[in-house]
Design goal:
Layout: H1 27-43, H2 50-58, H3 69-80, E1 83-87, H4 93-101, E2 104-108, H5 125-136, H6 139-157, H7 161-173, E3 176-179, E4 182-185, H8 188-191, H9 194-202, E5 207-210, H10 213-217, E6 229-233, H11 236-244, H12 248-256, E7 272-274, H13 279-286
Parallel strand pairs: 1-2, 3-6, 5-6
Antiparallel strand pairs: 3-4, 5-7
Helix pairs in contact: 2-5, 4-6, 6-7, 6-11
This protein binds phenylalanine and cobalt (II) ion.
Length: 287
C-alpha cells in the first residue's frame, strides 16, 4: 500500500520488482534479522494466533539469517500458490494490487539498521517477511489477500482506495482475532513489533471492538504510533466470507454520505471487547 506519486526507481522491472540480491546482505544484516526473530518467537507463542505460528514453522522461518525469497517462495507455492518478490520500498497502489491479485507478495529487500530495532517508518524485510508471509501459508488468509488485491483494482476504478485501505490497515496490518474469551494477534504490523505485540493485547489504553465491515471503513487510523483502536475478527473464515460476499460498490456509495468516525470513538452498536482508557495516546498529546 502506498502513495501514487512515486516514480519507478532505476533498475526495477516494469512491475517494480528487483532481485533480492541475497548475497549482498552483510553479516550485520543477518544478525539484525536473528535478533528481531529471536525476540518475537519468545514473545509470540502465547499471543499470536496459532495459524501464524504454524506458518512460521511450515515455511521454516528461523534464526538463520534473512531468508532467501526463492526458497521461501518454493515452500509457500506448495502450501498456497503464493510467491514472495522483492521491491526496493513502497510501490504504487496499482502495482501492489496487481501483485496481490496474482498471489505475489511484495517484500522490501532491505533490513533496518541496528539502531532501529523497535521502530522504523518504511516496511523492511523483517516486517514484510516475518510479519506478513506466515499467514500466506494459511489457505483462507491466502485467499483473503488475493481477494483484497482484486478488490483494490475495483476500488481504484471507483475512487474508493482510501476506504479499502482502512480494511487492510485494521485487518492485515493491525488485526486481532477472537480466541475464547480473549483475543490473539494476527496483524503483521503487530506481530513484527516487539512493543506493539505487548501493547495490543495487554495495555489498558486502546479500544478493542468487534469487526464490523462498514463501521471499520468509516474509522480513521493513525500510522505514527501504537493504534488507539483494534478490530477483533471472529475467525479468518468469517473475515473472508463477509468481505467476499459483500458487494463493495454500493457500500462505497453509502459511505460517501456518512461522516468518518474518530479513532477513539465507541458507538452504541459496537461489540466492545475493551473500552480503552486512551491514557497512552493522551499522555503523548500532552507531552
Ligand atoms: N467484495 C469486494 C468488492 O466487491 C472485494 C474484496 C474481497 C475486498 C475481499 C476485500 C477483501 O469489491
Ligand atoms: Co505491512
Amino acid at each position: 500500500m502506498a502513495d501514487v506519486n512515486i516514480t519507478r526507481p532505476e533498475g526495477t522491472a516494469k512491475d517494480w520488482t528487483i532481485s533480492q540480491n541475497w548475497s549482498a546482505y552483510t553479516a550485520q544484516d543477518h544478525a539484525t534479522w536473528d535478533r528481531l526473530f529471536e525476540r518475537q518467537v519468545r514473545l509470540l507463542p502465547d499471543r499470536a494466533t496459532p495459524e501464524f505460528m504454524d506458518g512460521l514453522d511450515m515455511l521454516r522461518l528461523s534464526k538463520a539469517g534473512i531468508p532467501d525469497f526463492g526458497e521461501l517462495s518454493d515452500r509457500l507455492m506448495k502450501a498456497t500458490g503464493w510467491q514472495v518478490v522483492a521491491v526496493p520500498g513502497l510501490v504504487p497502489d496499482a502495482v501492489f494490487f496487481d501483485h496481490l491479485a496474482n498471489r505475489r507478495f511484495v517484500a522490501g529487500n532491505f533490513i533496518r539498521r541496528p539502531d532501529q530495532l523497535d521502530y522504523l517508518q518504511e516496511p523492511d524485510v523483517f516486517h514484510d517477511v516475518f510479519g506478513h508471509v506466515p499467514l500466506l501459508a494459511h489457505p483462507v488468509f491466502a485467499d483473503y489477500m488475493q481477494a483484497y488485491g482484486i478488490g483494490g483494482q475495483r476500488a481504484a476504478g471507483l475512487g474508493a482506495i482510501e476506504r479499502l485501505s482502512r480494511l487492510y490497515w485494521y485487518t492485515v496490518e493491525f488485526g486481532l482475532v477472537k480466541s475464547g474469551d480473549t483475543a490473539r494477534l494476527y496483524g503483521a504490523g503487530i506481530v513484527s513489533s516487539f512493543t506493539e505485540s505487548v501493547f495490543a493485547l495487554d495495555d489498558p489504553s486502546p479500544n478493542r471492538i468487534g469487526f464490523d465491515l462498514k463501521r471499520l471503513m468509516r474509522t480513521k487510523y493513525r500510522i505514527d504510533d501504537f493504534q488507539q483502536n483494534y478490530f477483533v475478527i471472529d475467525s479468518f473464515e468469517d473475515l473472508l466470507d463477509q468481505t467476499l460476499n459483500t458487494d463493495f460498490g454500493p457500500l462505497y456509495l453509502e459511505l460517501e454520505r456518512e461522516p468518518d468516525i474518530e479513532i477513539e470513538a465507541i458507538l452504541p452498536a459496537d461489540r466492545v471487547f475493551t473500552k480503552g482508557t486512551q491514557s497512552y495516546a493522551r499522555a503523548k498529546v500532552a507531552a
